[in-house]
Write a structure and sequence with these properties.
This protein is mostly helical. Helix content is about 75%, strand content about 0%. It has helices spanning about 1-5, 10-35, 40-55, 65-90, 105-130, 145-150, 155-185, 190-220. It binds protoporphyrin IX containing FE.
Length: about 220
């Protein structure tokens, strides 16, 4: 049964939609949490510490955080595998293959594919930068995310990488949210306008909220 669903195109699209919505929920919470940087180092670092102690004393230190990490990794893998397989299927099914030139995928499809690849690379960079400190520009200190974030946005390449990624996030969510709603059956002639507006508003709010942090550091509001 699960095999039949997974083998179908609509099954893969459903996996993409559900895993995408899980990641979207994470992004909304992450963006809102990041804005706490405007309340100063004490509050921001305290918030990062709290993330590791959620559910105590029932949960051990970092258990909830690890549970969230496991869910996110599963969502990323499910999203990427189904995207890859759908894209292979799409290429194979293209009748234009037999004509002289390769038919080009639509603008939205190409943006989603490239956007997805950029975001996957960004997530690796971002974890190495602000979670493990491996590629961090300053003297990385775990437990001091405020200073770590300020260091990241004090370099030209840090700002460039994050700003490009935030724009990619916005574009990806704008189209992805809309597609997910259609796949999950929320679309209809009367609701499509509202869904488009919601997708645009969500993409704009997330991009602006995330961008506020590098802009805050660049303008000296956060230092
Ligand atoms: C300006 C934008 C962003 C800033 C300032 C930022 C900041 C941070 C910081 C400080 C951490 C480490 C938190 C800690 O260890 O307590 C972190 C972790 C993380 N961020 Fe971001 N982030 C941004 C955008 C994003 C985006 C767009 C994504 C996803 C596409 C993302 C995904 C993650 C993930 C997956 C983690 C790892 C969580 C973990 O396993 O510890 N972040 N971020």
């Amino acid at each position: 049964m699960a095999r039949t669903v997974w083998d179908s195109t609509v099954g893969k699209k459903t996996v993409m939609a559900v895993s995408g919505l899980i990641m979207l929920l994470y992004l909304v919470v992450h963006m809102l949490g990041n804005l706490k940087i405007f309340f100063g180092a004490g509050e921001f670092n305290h918030y990062a510490h709290w993330l590791r102690t959620i559910g105590e004393p029932f949960m051990h230190y970092e258990w909830t955080l690890w549970a969230v990490r496991v869910v996110l990794v599963l969502a990323v893998v499910a999203h990427a595998v189904s995207a890859y397989q759908l894209s292979r299927r799409d290429i194979k099914a293209r009748p234009a293959k037999y004509v002289h030139k390769k038919a080009r995928a639509s603008y939205a499809t190409r943006t989603m594919r490239w956007g997805g690849i950029i975001l996957a690379l960004f997530i690796v960079w971002h974890i190495l930068d602000l979670t493990t400190g491996t590629v961090h520009s300053g003297g990385f200190e775990s437990g001091k995310p405020y200073q770590n974030v300020v260091d990241t946005f004090s370099t030209w390449y840090g700002n460039t990488i994050y700003i490009v990624a935030m724009l990619a996030v916005g574009l990806h969510i704008r189209h992805g949210f809309w597609s997910a709603a259609q796949t999950l059956g929320a679309g209809s002639r009367t609701r499509d306008r509202a869904l488009k507006t919601t997708a645009n508003a969500l993409a704009l709010l997330l991009t602006a909220g995330f961008l506020a942090v590098p802009v805050g550091v660049m303008t000296g509001v956060v230092s």
